[in-house]
Amino acid sequence: MRIATILGLTTALCASAGTTYNVVQEYAGPTFFDGWDFYGNFDNLTNGDAIFVSSSEATSQRLAYVDPSTNHAIIKVDNTSRVAFNEKRNTVRITSQDRFAIGSVWVADMLHVPYGCSVWPAFWSQAPAWPEGGEIDTFEGVNQVTRNQMALHTNPGCSLRQDPTSLTQTSSIINSTNCDSAANENSGCVVTDPSLQSYGEVFAKGGGGVFVTEFAEEGISVWFFPRDLVPQSLSSNTTSLDTSKLGKPTANWPSGPGGCDINTFFQPQNLIFDITLCGDFAGAPNVFSQTCSGKCYNDYVIGDPSTYDNAYFDVASVRVYGEVGKQVVLQKGQSGNSGIGIRVSGLGVLVSSLVIGGMMVMI
């Protein structure tokens, strides 16, 4: 989740090859928050005017909870408290305890996403030692923008390769092609969804939709399906997923020469939901003034708390799928080269391997 500048260049992207994946993890229902860690600190990452509360604070303040009437997870900004000048507003950032390796797909079914002046929400992923290991932004926006943007952020050497000759190309708005986090104020290689249903009020009024992120050796792809176009293959009881049946991706970063070698620039990813306020992106004067008036902090963060009535995620589920035969789940505390891993079989998930001294022993 980083700064991006919209350039508005439309072009074509090639889709990644389809692969069949089986479910390995699900975050849903009453236990949704069991698999996540709360940040529990002020936003010292993107200079937001926000405090990411602890798990206990999120529960007591009703900023992260499962709605008993829908069984959906709600993740929100405090919309009831008056905040004093020079203080920050409470909100939430959660990170999955497990990490997911190349050969994974994550599917997020959302009914509502945060929006409004000063609001900067994202659903994304990163490796622990950012930018080493890369970052994948599936959903991100600021203030009153009307379209979702997707991006990669990496070490130098990764780019979005455009392939207009591909037979599986799709059209999206290409904002920037250099994924290097040290270049262009860390804008990353950004793609904007042309659909007005992908963000904000229109997203909510349409019943939300489903975001799919494929993290594959052939490349990284993101699909978005508004509620009325969600395919049956993404239904809540689906235990396997064939990405070749999803159609053309909304955004695609193919691996290979001239693009981004996924094995070189990416490592297993933690999933993240967060909502910060103002900060490096939403609060940048040239960005804020595009869709909002006044001053980001003075008029919103410490202003009328009801301005944050729409600053919440309503998440039906997040499901993670893994490629058959690959160890795709790194459990909390696992370094990535030692410990117990999870391998995906043709029938489901198996606790499969113990790595000792660099040698994998199947169990």
UniProtKB/TrEMBL annotation:
This is Glycoside hydrolase family 16 protein. Residues 1-16 form the signal peptide. Gene3D superfamilies: 2.60.120.200. PANTHER family: GLYCOSIDASE C21B10.07-RELATED, GLYCOSYL HYDROLASE-RELATED. It comes from Marasmius oreades (fairy-ring Marasmius). GO terms for biological process: glucan catabolic process. The keyword Flavoprotein does not apply. InterPro entries: ConA-like_dom_sf, Glycosyl_Hydrlase_16. Keywords: Signal. The lineage of its organism: Eukaryota, Fungi, Dikarya, Basidiomycota, Agaricomycotina. It holds the Pfam family GH16_XgeA. The keyword Kinase does not apply.
